[in-house]
């Protein structure tokens, strides 16, 4: 899973932090059905229908091949054996009888629940400080809290090894306990999922109705009583959504339990062992489907909660304006500073360890650990492959999601095809990266598939990463397009302007900021992803994130920290460059936004 990875990512919120959308365009919007067919002031020109039909057909075929069919291949492999004979539920029965299945399932559930509870509790206090207090340096604290979105979850786990491992700086704080196991999994999971919970909770608290707080204060209620009776109940849906999102992120994450999980068995590592360790694809498909079940249930619950949350927000709501409270503001400042220092400290330890000559005996800074050609993982070529894939993912993903969102929202014909297109585009939100990657093995490595030549190539890995992150980007683009009044299309139709001209001259320029933000999201996700591509790479297409896994397996922890640090720096630099490009293009081509 990417640190997002970030991430990741079965739900629309896995990677929401990567897309710094404007307030009117939120990536946390729930998937919605296409706009209803409305009457047009002019019949669509006959020449336009074939083009629209061809675009819809191409989009449906592309999403079916790269999203729907790989997921269906999982089901097929679980019901058929390697010889092609139908075996029904025999694989499920065999897995259920294995001695460790209950341990894996139980560990996955309780560790994910505990991680989600701790993470949401910490993030709620942080979000409350950002939105309901006069916190000094609120923008800085928010920026620091979002930094883990740019790093793979592996970086947090590696840093915890240097802090609490057998030769860690703070190992004595464990009082003889072991960092490799539940402690490491929960701590690492909380660290890399904290930004995801914070973004959801900040949005929920920022939409609090100021009239209710003002009324309670006028009636003499103390600030503590206002919090318990007004603020907390009003944000209950945000709390439940964030808990659900973090739970799914943790239960489907592969990086943290792989690096610091020790002998603690979870479903995510079970899939890896079945596929890579034992070459047992049918059993791997069974575990992937079991892992898919809680993700789907959580996705359904999240959509239901979002609908309730939206219905709960009145049209006459007034934004809450916090009033100064010296004692509370200082306490919240100390709380946020403590969490921010913890996040920065964990990242700083990994960076320092990557520069240490030989931990912990010779801490003299050097670039010895950055000589990746001397260790396992593919060397510097892996980093080059990651950059190429990240750039390709950013370009292809942003363009494809914009086109699919346009086809869902703007045309007024082919309602059934648009509905199917939107449904398939929403599937990756409920599919863990490991399950999708295994589906790519089963589908694209099949002898009958004419696309078998793509298997193991950087092209297929790029397509898999785009598919893994597709839903969030699609919904974000869809939300941006829905900000445009339907009168644009009506006026263009009345003037006889073809849809492609309106798309090029109106929709694309107006949605350009969102398009670049989505490109940044795809770039960061591609740099940090692990689970979606861990099954489909070849020795010639190893990625930087996969090199971190290989180095960790070989015991080269310092080079692994160095590569993870390089991934973090590259993701941050790429996101900053795209942000600068967005500001430059908007300033030169869209001055009307400043009016």
Question: Mind explaining what this structure looks like?
Answer:
Residues 105-302, 383-579 form the ABC transmembrane type-1 domain. The structure is a single chain. The chain is built from 23 helices and 2 strands. It is mostly helical and 595 residues long. A two-stranded antiparallel ribbon has the order 1-2. Helix 21 packs antiparallel against helix 23. The relative contact order is 0.17.
Compose a concise summary of this entry.
The chain has 595 residues and is mainly alpha-helical. The chain has 23 helices and 2 strands.
Could you give the topology of this structure?
Elements: H1 48-79, H2 90-97, H3 101-131, H4 138-145, H5 153-164, H6 182-206, H7 210-218, H8 223-234, H9 236-251, H10 255-260, H11 267-277, H12 281-311, H13 326-355, E1 356-358, E2 362-365, H14 380-409, H15 415-425, H16 433-444, H17 458-468, H18 470-481, H19 487-494, H20 499-510, H21 512-528, H22 544-553, H23 557-589
Antiparallel strand pairs: 1-2
Helix pairs in contact: 1-12, 1-14, 1-15, 1-16, 3-6, 3-9, 3-13, 5-6, 5-13, 5-23, 6-9, 7-8, 9-12, 11-12, 12-16, 13-23, 14-15, 14-17, 14-18, 14-21, 14-22, 18-21, 21-23, 22-23
